[in-house]
């Protein structure tokens, strides 16, 4: 399958999924009977309408962004393909405006909520639609700058696409059909980057300001709100935060990668730039999922639909307990732990399938040119897999937010509080350290491999140093954890939970499978140490990414074409491996800590989904290794795709096979006749 066809297939799948989920959201909003939620339905509806606009423009325009040798080409492969200019170029720019509109429209929802809740003001239609218009106009500035740069300035260079781009980007007529060009050395690119930065900064500054005002108001007036309103406000905070994070990740990550491709033209990452742009098609899906997961009313309706009104599964712990009549409303029970643990089984299966496949391909499909690097690559796959399996199977980490406590939902809960929860939480710090340090070692190996100073990484000393560093590195965070745990009894923890997060009271009271800091200052110290240690490893990794890029650029004249292609391929794979923990690890952890710092009430559901996302890190990491490195990609094709194609061939009707055979014989006869005429 050509890359152009793959790009189109990605758009079709993303648009179908996004359309289904957003129509589901609209249907649930229309059928909502919750009086407390009714006045806020418009801000949820707004997100779905904006997403539908983006879906329509994506499927009709079918945009492609390709960067090669520091120049960006844009292609419209939809209904506007091969139309007269500037219509085709304008269709691309309309799509770009809609992408940024999905970001600039987010503050409107925050302003709406702030004025309704904190200012006690009614939102008039004029005010609301004026705000939406301003958001759209701000996004349109990107389209204006883009039209000037892509069409007016770069229009004369469009023809170069036919010469420099490969067959993967050509249509059925053999044409690339680029409609706009962004020249990397032009000063206009700085205006475009500044405009994108201004839209992002202003949008999120408004979101942060309004969110802080709302959180302060809820803390001050929480006593005066009914239980239902408290729950709804907490769910809205989480939902709007998730909707703000989704575009930030799905838009800024591809843009950052594209800027890097333009800044380092010698890397020739044309195919990788296309892969990064595919992410943009999934923005509507991300927004819809956040609404369906974090709005309790909608989530319960969906679960009721799929379970036919039945609740959960039988608990692993004996259910012969008596429910306290004075138990707080919405209290978590052991059945909630069992349901959560059952959902983690999905992660476990996917983790095993993807990682075992990646390990097999690394061991059996690694080329001789890659040498001993396969062992370091194997390390970057095995260590995250151990981390995820520990979190989802053995420990079953269940966070009691916003108190920052944790319970054991996995098999370890049968071993009591100390060995089942406290020890497992400490082991988790070690496994996280193994995952992070393995990735950093991969970057170090790549850098010194290109530099020609690889001897140390092949010595016996490194075999002793790697486990030693991995074990020692998390000691500061473990010390902070121990400092926070000492000096208080379990009874004090139960009282603390009852006073601060009563919805978890029953779990702490009846089952000694949980643990929590009872002193807020100690928890802040622990969080600060953890954030610092995570940041150090990630900053070190990014530093060596930049070093590898510069070194590759410097030594390229001294490398053969095959060696350079291999080094670039391995580096790009590691680069994408570095983006995976940012999405699946760093962001969920930082958001969990933000929930603690902001003390967001009734955020249990959010923390559960955050842990489920975190435990998918190794799966995404393994798939990235397989997809980005050519020998493994071919191996996957041979093991999975070819047998599947054979099965499909056998299933196909016999008549269809006969028609295909007749067509092939006709083509052969035609070719033979042409050969006879020429001779």
Indicate the low-confidence ranges by residue numbers. Answer: 308-330, 653-679
- Tell me the total number of β-strands: 6
The general outline is globular
Indicate how many domains the architecture comprises: 3
Q: Can you name the CATH architecture of the largest domain?
A: Up-down Bundle
Number of helices: 25
Structural class: mainly alpha
Task: Let me know the average pLDDT.
Answer: 77
Relevant CATH superfamily of the largest domain: Rhodopsin 7-helix transmembrane proteins
Largest sheet: 3 strands, antiparallel
Could you tell me the radius of gyration in angstroms? 27 Å
N-to-C CA distance: 35 Å
What name does the CATH topology of the largest domain carry? Rhopdopsin 7-helix transmembrane proteins
Largest sheet strand order: 1-2-3
Beta-strand percentage?
Answer: under 5%
Helix content: over 70%
**CATH top level class name of the largest domain:** Mainly Alpha
């Amino acid at each position: 399958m050509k890359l152009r066809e793959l790009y189109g297939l990605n758009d079709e799948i993303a648009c179908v999924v996004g359309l289904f989920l957003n129509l589901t959201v609209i249907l649930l909003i229309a059928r909502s009977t919750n009086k407390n939620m009714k006045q806020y339905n418009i801000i949820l509806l707004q997100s779905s309408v904006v997403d539908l606009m983006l879906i329509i423009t994506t499927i009709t325009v079918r945009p492609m962004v390709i960067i090669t040798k520091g120049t960006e080409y844009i292609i419209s492969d939809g209904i506007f393909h091969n139309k007269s200019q500037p219509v085709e170029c304008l269709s691309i720019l309309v799509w770009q405006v809609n992408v940024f509109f999905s970001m600039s429209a987010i503050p409107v929802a925050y302003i709406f909520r702030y004025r309704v809740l904190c200012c006690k003001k009614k939102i008039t239609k004029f005010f609301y639609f004026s705000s939406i218009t301003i958001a759209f106009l701000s996004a349109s500035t990107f389209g204006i700058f883009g039209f000037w740069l892509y069409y007016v300035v770069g229009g004369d260079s469009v023809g170069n696409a036919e010469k420099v781009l490969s067959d993967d980007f050509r249509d059925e007529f053999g044409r690339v059909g680029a409609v706009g060009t962004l020249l990397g050395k032009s000063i206009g690119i700085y205006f475009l980057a500044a405009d994108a930065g201004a839209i992002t900064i202003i949008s999120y500054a408004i979101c942060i300001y309004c969110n802080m005002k709302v959180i302060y108001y809820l803390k001050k007036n929480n006593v005066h709100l009914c239980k239902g309103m408290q729950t709804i406000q907490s769910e809205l905070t989480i939902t709007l935060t998730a909707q703000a994070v989704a575009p930030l990740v799905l838009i800024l990550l591809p843009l950052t990668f594209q800027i890097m491709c333009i800044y380092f033209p010698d890397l020739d990452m044309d195919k990788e730039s296309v892969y990064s742009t595919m992410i943009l098609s999934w923005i509507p899906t991300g927004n819809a999922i956040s609404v369906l997961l974090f709005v309790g009313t909608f989530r319960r309706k969906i679960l009721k639909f799929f379970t036919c009104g039945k609740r959960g599964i039988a608990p692993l712990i004996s259910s012969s307990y008596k429910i306290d009549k004075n138990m707080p409303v919405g209290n978590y029970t052991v059945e909630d732990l069992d349901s959560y643990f059952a959902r983690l089984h999905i992660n476990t299966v996917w983790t095993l399938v993807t990682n075992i496949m990646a390990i097999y391909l690394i061991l059996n499909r690694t080329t001789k040119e890659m040498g001993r690097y396969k062992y370091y690559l194997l390390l970057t796959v095995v260590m995250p897999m151990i981390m995820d399996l520990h979190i989802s199977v053995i420990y079953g980490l269940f966070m009691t937010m916003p108190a920052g406590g944790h319970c054991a939902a996995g098999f370890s809960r049968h071993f009591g509080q100390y060995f089942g929860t406290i020890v497992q939480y400490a082991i988790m710090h070690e496994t996280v350290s193994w995952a992070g340090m393995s990735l950093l070692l991969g970057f170090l190996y790549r850098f010194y491999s290109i530099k020609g100073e690889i001897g140390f990484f092949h010595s016996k000393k490194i075999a002793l140093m790697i486990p030693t560093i991995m074990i020692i590195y998390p000691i500061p965070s473990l010390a902070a954890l121990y400092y926070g745990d000492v000096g208080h009894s379990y009874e004090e923890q139960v009282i603390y939970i009852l006073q601060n997060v009563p919805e978890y009271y029953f779990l702490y009271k009846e089952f000694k499978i949980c643990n929590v800091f009872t002193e807020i200052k100690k928890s802040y110290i622990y969080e600060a140490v953890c954030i610092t240690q995570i940041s150090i490893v990630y900053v070190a990794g990014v530093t060596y990414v930049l070093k590898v890029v510069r070194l590759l650029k410097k030594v390229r004249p001294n490398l053969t074409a095959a060696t350079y292609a291999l080094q670039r391929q391995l580096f790009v794979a590691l680069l994408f491996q570095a983006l995976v923990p940012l999405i699946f690890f760093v962001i969920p952890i930082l958001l969990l800590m933000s929930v603690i710092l902001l003390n967001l009430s009734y955020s249990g559901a959010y923390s559960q989904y955050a842990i489920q996302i975190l435990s998918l890190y190794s799966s995404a990491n393994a798939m990235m290794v397989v997809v980005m490195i050519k020998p493994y990609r071919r191996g996957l094709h041979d093991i999975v795709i070819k047998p599947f194609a054979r099965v499909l061939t056998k299933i196909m009707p016999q008549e269809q096979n006969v028609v295909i055979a007749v067509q092939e014989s006709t083509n052969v006869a035609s070719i033979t006749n042409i050969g006879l005429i020429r001779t």
